Amino acid sequence: MRAVRRHLFAQDSAAGQGIxxxxxxxxxxxxxxxxxxxxxxxxxxxxxxxxxxxxxxGYNYDIDFVSLVQTNKTSRFRRGIxxxxxxxxxxxxxxxxxxxxxxxxCQQCLLNSATGPITTRYRHSMINLPxxxxxxxVSSRTxxxxxSGLGFVPYNKPTLSGARSTPRLNAQNAWALPQSVxxxxxxxxxxASNGVSIPNLPVEMSKPSKVNQALAGMTAILMSATGLPVRxxxxxxxxxxxxxxxxxxSVKEGRKVSKKVTPSEPEQVVRKYxxxxxxxxxxxxxxxxxxxxxxxxxxxxxxxxxAIKPEAVGRLTKCQHTFHLLCVLxxxxxxxxxxxxxxxxxxxxxxxxxxxxxxxxxxxxTFTQSLPGHKDCGTIQIVYHISRGIQGPEHPNPGTPYxxxxxxxxxxxPDNEKGRKVxxxxxxxxxxxxxxxxxxxxxxxxxxxxxxxxxxxxxxMDTNLSGHGYPDPNYLDNVLAELAAQGVTEDGVGQ
Length: 495
Description:
By secondary structure, the protein is an alpha+beta fold.
């Protein structure tokens, strides 16, 4: 058991004044930082500081208030940020008459005692929940709470269940939400005290056991309804007028994409990449289960190892980060079980990582028209085809249908040396099922749908107003860094 606490913010803070800082997500919309980050950024901004480092809050980002840019200190990937002053606080409004008695734990009282907007995070956080493909930085191509105290689940799978520290992993449990909402179109809702209309947006969650997996999308919808918008952008039109001059390839991909030999037993994989320690650090936590390393694993009740005991502590061989070996085993068995591991702390990959992308087809062609910023060469066009289907055992909800909105999807690269290098690596990522996954859309809130998976693509040719087109002088370097973060490097080309 662990203590919990409630955060209150002063009226003169960013929260009290309705000021929210937001970052631009992969769909061109804006997603809010969690409130403690907003308060930190607002304090720095009002004091005239030009740069802020978020490492003290557990995030690997630098903020430039002059150019309004957030930079990942590792990959150097940059995102736009903005400051909004029109956001109501708190952001929730009761859906019925308030109780006159002492507040209880019912839905009404919970919603009226909220302390501020809860962000949906996917790349900012240490939690990579299958239900969240968007949201604070961690986007559908790499949902709420700080990364400083949570375990990173490197596979797009349901959160591990049964552990004593499960609430730590189910990050979206921060709000209690109704288990089901009626089906239908948006209906008129209440009006907040500041005049912002709060429509009732229908979301269907058929089974209570699926609530945790849908909370990320629900939170995004609630934010949109209360003044924290999810910006929708028009899908890029197929380039029917741009005639392809050369067909490179058509790559089909099914579920069985690799013939590599992997250890047959999960414990063999853990033992291969981690060495057991004789003594555990007394004051250090395991960031997977959030228990002390000197205590048994929080997954002792949910995962049983044949030779790995709950007290066993191990260190990963490359990055030297330390965890309960049973927690690493639980993380592995809850993923793809493909013979690879990814460090929950620094994301170092051991072995060859594969994803959960549904089967489909990748087509590549070229044409002579140039992209803005690349006038000296033609254009590579990538077309991704994925159809709707049924989720497999590696997906969040096995046996449940998934949708495939917006396909075929058209993407563009400059037809130069670096662009062709990116193309080769994208082919490898496609074969490893890393380009897409099944999760929750950050723009529509729809769950059980095909979404981008942490590798950015340019889906527009002639403008970069949405951040998904050209010119963008840093794009090729950024996407190479993202591919490397997924374990996709030149070593894998041609294999």
